[in-house]
Amino acid sequence: MADLHQLKDNEVLMAFASYATIVLTKMMFMSSATAFQRLTNKIFANPEDCAGFGKGENAKKFLRTDEKVERVRRAHLNDIENIVPFLGIGLLYSLSGPDLSTALMHFRIFVGARIYHTIAYLTPLPQPNRALAFFAGYGVTLSMAYRLLKSRLYL
Fold first, then answer.
1. What is the pLDDT of residues 29-77, one digit of tens each?
2. Which conformational region is residue 142 in: left (phi greater than 0), alpha (psi within -120 to 50 degrees), or beta?
3. Of 5, 13, 17, 72, which is closest to residue 40 (Cα–Cα)?
4. pLDDT category, 3, cuts 50, 70, 90?
5. What is the CATH topology of the domain spanning 4-152?
6. Which contacts of 147-151 are long-range, i.e. CB under 8 A and separated by 24 or more positions?
7. 42: alpha, beta or left, given left = phi > 0 and alpha = psi -120 to 50?
């Protein structure tokens, strides 16, 4: 069984931890960006959130949807759908002993693709910008899963 010192000496795992921190921080930023859009535009999803802006029927006018808020929210949901699998598969991949340069390529492409995807979503850039960024990140996660299963398959 590996102790913490051995894990700390695993360069691939430390690289993964660095890039995972970047995408998790970006994902956390997206929830703050959604909240910012809601507050700035006074658009809320829940009745209790409107209470500070009015009472009764007056408060209900703040209970609606807005394309700006929904765009940020959808970008955040897309992060959740893609970053969570990357974290699980990336951790297992990192512990499977891959080559450092190959692992770094995977991590860097994924992080770059997720950042570009967010920019393409929020700007919004014309398609296929967002789709290409999505598939680049998705492809990285699939590549790590394939390499992991190919080298460490115990079925």
1. 999 999 999 888 888 888 887 777 767 677 777 878 888 999 999 999 9
2. alpha
3. 72
4. low
5. Four Helix Bundle (Hemerythrin (Met), subunit A) (1.20.120)
6. 147/93, 147/96, 147/98, 148/89, 148/92, 148/93, 148/96, 151/96, 151/97
7. left
